[in-house]
Specification:
This protein has 667 residues and is an alpha/beta fold. It is built from 20 helices and 32 strands. Helix content is 31%, strand content 22%. The strands form 9 sheets. The protein has an 8-stranded mixed β-sheet with strand order 12-11-8-6-7-14-15-25, with helices on both faces.
Length: 667
């Protein structure tokens, strides 16, 4: 089933800008052999205050043994990302086009903003920041819900040359304090609060704690906290104090209302012209295994790559309605909610809520409401929605969909097929995108009308991307094989460093295999030359000398119709080295018993081999997930080992899940 090939349908091909595999192959070859010529079309579609130097598209060193690692793209140029995503679109006649449809947590809350109006708001807020002496190179921390002001703030920073550092608004005050202090943020932008389903989020209160902790623990003072009054304008989904301001304290010396800062501001804000390698933003990785890494992206190369990946991976056309469900606190939200769609003049849906509120059909209702043509979400959301059956999907008209996509982790074949057959009605292409915070944009993916698809397979390299699979000894694996996923040359959107720690940047990504960027993920190449991402290397298992990925086992477990979701971790074994400890969540009506456990073990043994048979299969009423939907596997490892100190769990969506997992732990 997983190796079955699905070809793009006429529904996709007939409207595509890249309609054949041969064309993809020719373009990919040119992108590697003649990069300057390949990228010229999109480079010429960017506004340059000073054009890039001719004949100097990209310079780099990936070999740590030969000196400092660096990447430079489009040197000599001056541009501004905000100018390209707003001014340029308005000047080209898109001023009245909808930039964003905003859909709130409650279905009664919605709005829209045109490119012209967004331009005005960004200029006004840019001027407000300049009034606070924020300018080129200053860092601005953002801790916001999925509201339009979040986009305004990011673009205003880009306009005036400030570097934004968005922190996902589910992180604890400790995590926010650490990130603000590390980047030396002068300003924090937040909202008084928000709703997620029926849960009230008191963001301002978290920010107050973070500002205090930054001062006490890191000796860093955030002098201004700008607050959007969000709660008073949206539908309450639960019990609220009579006065919203009872939810938090107000410090006149630090706090200022967004709307008061905006009053009287001009909608003319001259852009700061930035050099190609000037920083655009930094985004911290989760820090679950140590000090958070401030991944730094720069201006020209990131803009070029974001613009290109959106154009081809989503096969964007002028009248499309695009929706990415990601939060802007993560890289997917940066690139594929904000910068890439706007760089292409797209109309987007921005969603503050959850897939399950007020009903389990919220995603499908929104697709029908806005006539969405491209839908981009996470496998974890797809699997969660599968549990509720097909009826929620079938009652909505989603015939406008043309491209489906997934992000965040390898999608298991069962979820892929459900997505393809039910949501996409057997006619939409699925782009199973592999990329990272560090890569800036898609690096391995399907191209909707051009490439064949296999359930669970990432696909082919994007333009300019040159993947290499290496074995443990750093030898190149040619043809069919499995190993470490690396890249032997950069692409325009790759990160340039870790903020304030270039040595760590070199050690983490380039030391293991000199001459290659190491993703930290495993991959295998099949007989058709397609690349399967097998998961993080630390999520790979070595059982009795057999190397396998956790995602491979998880896919087999979820083939059983009773299993809705599975997560596999390694547990030390005296004989095998490592054994498989599996957690399974069940579909409604299914029963966890000895027969199920035996059937699942037998299925894994039959599909992968006797060496892969799990030692433990534990019932999991729910998985420990962050609010972005990612499973916290380090917590599962602790449970498998019988440990009770789970470390920082502030980003867990539902901490009560841990008690249930511990209760069901196998002894």
């Amino acid at each position: 089933m997983a190796n079955e090939i699905y070809l793009p349908t006429d529904h996709v091909v007939d409207r595509s800008r890249l309609p054949s595999f041969e064309q993809y192959q020719d373009m990919h070859k040119q992108s590697l052999d003649e990069p300057q010529q390949f990228w010229a079309d999109i480079v010429n579609d960017i506004h340059w205050q000073t054009p890039p130097e001719s004949g100097n598209f990209m310079t780099y060193n990936f070999d740590i043994t030969k000196g400092k690692i660096f990447v430079k793209c489009l040197e000599g140029s001056l541009t501004n990302v905000c100018f390209n995503v707003l001014d340029k679109n308005v000047r080209n006649g898109y001023g009245d086009k909808i930039a964003f449809y905003w859909e709130g947590n409650h279905p009664e809350d919605y709005s829209r903003v045109t490119y012209a109006k967004l331009y005005d708001l960004v200029c006004q807020f840019g001027n407000a920041l300049r009034d606070r002496n924020i300018g080129k190179g200053d860092r601005v921390a953002i801790y916001m819900p999925m509201i339009l002001e979040t986009v305004v703030c990011m673009l205003a920073c880009a306009r005036i040359g400030a570097i934004h550092s968005v922190v996902f608004a589910g992180f604890s005050s400790d995590s926010l304090a650490e990130r603000m202090s590390d980047c030396k943020a002068k300003v924090l932008v937040t909202a008084d609060g928000g709703w997620r389903g029926t849960k009230l989020l008191t963001l301002k209160d978290t920010c107050d704690e973070a500002i205090q902790k930054a001062k006490e623990k890191y000796n860093h003072e955030v002098k201004t906290c700008i607050v959007v009054a969000h709660l008073e304008r949206v539908t309450a989904c639960g019990k609220l104090p009579h006065d919203l301001r009872d939810l938090y304290k107000w410090n006149q010396d630090v706090d200022v209302w967004w709307h008061e800062m905006m009053e009287g501001q001009s909608n003319i804000c001259p852009p700061e012209w930035m050099q190609a390698e000037d920083p655009l933003f930094m985004l911290y990785t989760s820090g679950s295994t140590g000090k958070p890494k401030g991944v730094l992206h720069t201006t020209a190369g990131y803009l070029l790559y974001a613009k290109a990946t959106f154009r081809y991976v989503f096969d964007h056309r002028d009248k499309d309605i695009y929706w990415c469900t990601a939060d802007v606190g993560w890289i997917t939200g940066h690139t594929y909610v904000v910068y890439a769609p706007l760089a292409n003049g797209a109309t987007c849906v921005m969603f503050e809520g959850t897939p399950f509120y007020p009903d389990n059909d919220r995603y499908w209702a929104i697709i029908e409401k806005y006539k969405v043509t491209q839908f981009y979400t996470a496998p974890t959301a797809i699997r969660a929605l599968m549990k509720f059956g097909d009826s929620h999907v079938k009652k909505h008209n989603m015939s406008t969909l043309r491209v489906l996509a997934s992000v965040g982790e390898p999608i298991n074949p069962e979820a892929w097929l459900w997505y393809y057959k039910l949501v996409g009605s057997n006619r939409c292409s699925i782009a199973d995108t592999f990329w990272q915070t560090e890569t800036g944009g898609h690096v391995i993916t399907s191209i909707p009308a051009a490439t064949p698809m296999k359930p669970g397979c990432a696909g082919y390299p994007f333009f300019g991307v040159d993947p290499v699979i290496l074995d443990n000894d750093g030898q190149v694996v040619t043809g069919v094989g499995e190993g470490y996923l690396t890249f032997k040359r950069p692409w325009p959107g790759i990160m340039r460093t870790l903020y304030g720690d270039h040595d760590r940047f070199q050690d983490v990504y380039f030391k293991r295999f000199p001459g290659y960027y190491c993703t930290g993920d495993g991959a295998k190449r099949d007989e058709d030359g397609m690349i399967w991402v097998t998961g993080r290397i630390d999520d790979m298992l070595n059982v009795s000398g057999h190397l396998m990925s956790t995602s491979e086992v998880e896919s087999v477990l979820t083939e059983d119709s009773r299993v809705s979701e599975a997560a596999v971790v390694a547990k030390p074994h005296k004989v095998k080295g490592e054994s498989l400890y599996c957690f399974v969540s069940l579909n409604e009506g299914a029963t966890y018993n000895a027969e199920l456990v035996d059937a699942l073990k037998r299925r894994v043994r039959d599909r992968i081999g006797a060496f892969a048979a799990p030692d433990v299969i534990q019932f999991a009423p729910g998985m420990p997930k962050t609010r972005s939907g990612k499973i916290m596997r380090r917590v599962l490892r602790k449970i498998a080992l019988g440990e009770s100190d789970f470390g920082d769990i502030s980003t867990l969506a539902d901490p009560s899940v841990l008690d249930e997992l511990v209760k069901h732990r196998s002894t």
